[in-house]
Amino acid sequence: MATTAYLGTGGNNLLQPSLLSSSRGCRCRSSPSKVVIPARPGSGFGNLGFNGRKSVMWLIQNGVSLNRRVKTSVARAEPDQLGEGGAKQEVEEGHKVSAEENWVSESQQKASQLKKRVIFGIGIGITVGGIVLAGGWVFTLFLAAAVFFGGREYFELVRSRGITEGMTPPPRYVSRVCFVICSIMPILTLYFGQIDVSVTFAAFVVAMALLLQREIPRFAQLSTAMFGLFYCGYLPCFWVKLRCGLQAPALNTRIGAVWPILLGGRVHWTVGLVATLISMSSIIAADTFAFLGGKTFGRTPLTSISPKKTWEGTIAGLSGCVATSVVLSKIFGWPTSFLSAMAFGFLNFFGSIFGDLTESMIKRDAGVKDSGSLIPGHGGILDRADSYIFTGALAYSFVKIILPLYGV
Predict the structure, then answer these.
(1) What distance in Å separates the CA atoms of residue 45 and residue 63, rounded to the nearest whole number?
(2) Are residues 383 and 253 in the same domain?
(3) Alpha carbon separation from 125 to 121, 128, 146, 385 (Å, rounded)
C-alpha cells in the first residue's frame, strides 16, 4: 500500500490528498510505511514525517491553525496598508499646503512690487512736478536725459531677437549716433526755438552713414533709424516748445497771483506752464483711472496689441482725463471756456492712449515685457513716458493753433 500526499496553499485545506491508491499486485516497488513531505521554507514545520491516518489528522489540525495565523497576520497588516493610504493623503495635503504657500508668496511678491511701484511713482511725480515748475534749462536738460535713455531703449528693442527675425537692424554705431542726436534735439529747440532744421540735418547724417557702410544697406535699417529720430527725438521736443516757448502770462491764474516773488512771482505762471501742468496731470489721471477701471470692470478687450487693456478701462481713463482737465482749468483759470477744457482733455487722452499702444506694439514685436529696467517697479523710460511722446505735439498744436483759431 502506497500513500502519496502534498501540502497545498489554497483554501482552508493545508493538506490535500492528491492520490491515494493501493496496488496489491505490484511487486516491483517497495511499500514504504512512512512518507516524508517537505514543507515550504518559513512555514515552521520543517520536513514532516507521518505514519498512517493519525499523522494526516495531526497535519490537518496544525494546517488549520497555520491558516488562522496567516489570516491574523493579514488582519494585522491592514493597518499598515491604511497607513500607506494615510501617507498618500498626507503627501496630497503637503502638496496643497505647498501650493498655498506658493500662492501666498506670489501675493506677497505682487504686493511688494505694487508698493515699490507706488513709492517710486510718487517720487517721480514730485520730482517731475518740481522740474516743470522750474522750466528753462532745468526742464530742458531733464528732458534731454530722458530722451537719451529712451532712445537707447528704443534701439535696443530694434536689435532684439523678436524684431531682427524679420528685418536687418541698423549697425550699432548708427544706433548710438541716433540716440545721441535725439538727446541734443531738446537743447537745440530751446536755443533756436525751432526743430525743423536740426531734424532734417540729423536725418541726412544718419542716411549717409547707412548708405556708406561696408555692408549692403537695407531699407529696414533706414526706416527704423528714421522712425527712432522722429519717435525719440522730434516728438519730445514739443514739450520744450510748450513749456518754454509759450511765455505769455496766464493772467487769470489764481495760484499765480499769490505765487512768491522769490520763485518767479506772477510772471512765472505762463500759458506754457499751465498747459503743461494740465496736460501731464490729465495723462496721470488717465493712466490711473484706466488701471482701476480695467481691474474692477474690465471684460471686453480693447485690442490684440495689448491684451490687458479693455474698453471699460479705456472709458474710465477717458472720463478721468477729461474730468481732471476741467477741474484744473477752473483752478488755474485757463482755458476759460468749459468746452475748450473738455476738448483739451479729450486730446490729451487720445495722445496718451496712442503713444501707449505704439510702445506696446514695439515691445510685442520685440518679444519683451518691459523696454528696460531703469526705474524699479516701472520698467524703462519708454514704459513710463510712452503716454507723453505724442501728447506734447498735440497739446502744443491745441494751444498754438486751435485756441487762437477760435478766438479763445
Answers:
(1) 10
(2) yes
(3) 6, 5, 14, 12
129 domain-assigned:
no
Q: How far is CA 34 from CA 2, 31, 49, in A?
A: 9, 9, 7
Which residue segment(s) compose the domain that 175 sits in?
Answer: 141-152+170-245
Between CA 278 and CA 348 the distance in angstroms is: 9
pLDDT recorded at residue 247: 85
According to DSSP, the residues that pair with 16 across neighbouring strands are 6
Query: Quick one: 203 and 273 in the same domain?
Result: no
End position of a domain, from candidates 214, 245, 276: 245
Q: pLDDT at position 106, please?
A: 67
Can you tell me which residue has the cell 484706466?
290
Across 86-90, 138-142, 157-161, least confident range: 86-90
C-alpha cell at 57: 489528522
Output the nine-digit C-alpha cell for 201: 540735418
Residues 181, 154: Cα–Cα separation, whole Å? 14
b/e per residue, 272-294, with b = 16+ CB within 10 A? bbbbbbbbbbbbbbbbbbbbebb
> Could you tell me if 267 and 240 lie in one domain?
no
Please tell me whether residues 261 and 342 are part of one structural domain.
yes
276 and 208 in one domain? Answer: no
Q: Are residues 146 and 218 in the same domain?
A: yes
Instruction: Please state the φ and ψ torsions of residue 307, each to the nearest 5 degrees.
Output: -60, -25
- 219 and 256 assigned to the same domain: no
C-alpha cell read off for 252? 487769470
Cis peptide before 335 (omega within 30 of 0): yes
The confidence band for 42, taking pLDDT boundaries of 50, 70 and 90, is very low
Give yes or no: residues 291 and 403 share one domain: yes
Helices (H), 308-376: 311-332, 338-366
- Judged on CB neighbours under 10 Å (0-12, 13-18, 19+), 335 is buried
Q: Whole-structure pTM over 0.90, yes or no?
A: no
pLDDT-wise least confident of 94-108, 137-151, 175-189 = 94-108
Residue 110 has pLDDT above 70, yes or no: no
CB atoms within 10 A of CB 42: 6
Rg over alpha carbons for the chain, rounded to the nearest Å, is 44
